[in-house]
Automatic annotation (TrEMBL):
Domain NADPH-dependent FMN reductase-like: 3-157
InterPro entries named among the record's database cross-references: Flavoprotein-like_sf, FMN_Rdtase-like_dom, NAD(P)H-dep_reductase
GO cellular component, one term: cytosol
Pfam family, one: FMN_red
GO molecular function, one term: FMN binding
Gene3D superfamilies in UniProt: 3.40.50.360
Protein name: FMN reductase
């Protein structure tokens, strides 16, 4: 059975580097033998996480759709930008809303349960967004996922992509291959243990 991996970027900005990183991850995962679903968070707009709003109106429909998507996949790869050395608000808000889900109608739904997660980042600076991944790693551990050790941080992202969307630097591409292979391996192992 092919591991099912969900890939998305933590930014909705047109031309976002994280979106380009997600595209490279998508192609790499497919080449390595995964079944991949690629989504954009722009298709799942959410209000700011607010427990009063949740109490009044329940979990938003788009959060439920994302929760079902997370649940239907064995692994998740997140390509995140770095905002002030941390997690962008769009991504944090998405993670928080999905973490509130415990049921889907009359059946239990735990979107993060048993999920293996890979993290990638990008920025125009020398750290490639890696500082933000410390925070993202912590948040994803807290919601109950298993985060693989390998990560890919794309430095000088304004120069990192060729016209066809691939990385211009072989070292960065090898880093992405290691991340994707590790995600596939860890996901296969996690599925075999269920």
């Amino acid at each position: 059975m092919l591991p099912r991996i969900l890939v998305f970027a933590g930014s909705n900005r047109t031309g976002a580097y994280s979106g380009k990183v997600a595209n490279v991850a998508l192609r790499t995962l497919i080449e390595l033998g995964a079944e991949v679903t690629h989504i954009s968070l722009v298709d799942y707009p959410l209000p700011l996480m607010d427990q009063d709003l949740e109490k009044e109106k329940g979990i938003p429909d788009n959060a439920m759709k994302l929760g079902r998507l997370f649940s239907a996949h064995d692994g998740i790869l997140i390509a995140s930008p770095e905002y002030n050395s941390s997690i962008p608000p769009l991504l944090k808000n998405t993670i928080d809303w999905v973490s509130r889900i415990s049921r889907d109608g009359d059946r239990p739904l735990k979107p993060y349960s048993g999920k293996v997660v890979a993290l990638c980042s990008s920025s125009e600076g020398n750290f490639g967004g890696a500082r933000g991944l410390y925070h993202l790693r912590s948040v994803m551990m807290n919601v109950g996922t298993q985060i693989i050790t390998e990560q890919c941080s794309v430095v000088h992202a304004q120069e990192a992509f060729a016209e066809d969307g691939s990385f211009t630097d072989e070292r960065t591409f090898k880093s992405m291959q290691r991340v994707c292979q590790s995600l596939i391996d860890h996901t296969r192992y996690a599925v075999s243990r269920r």
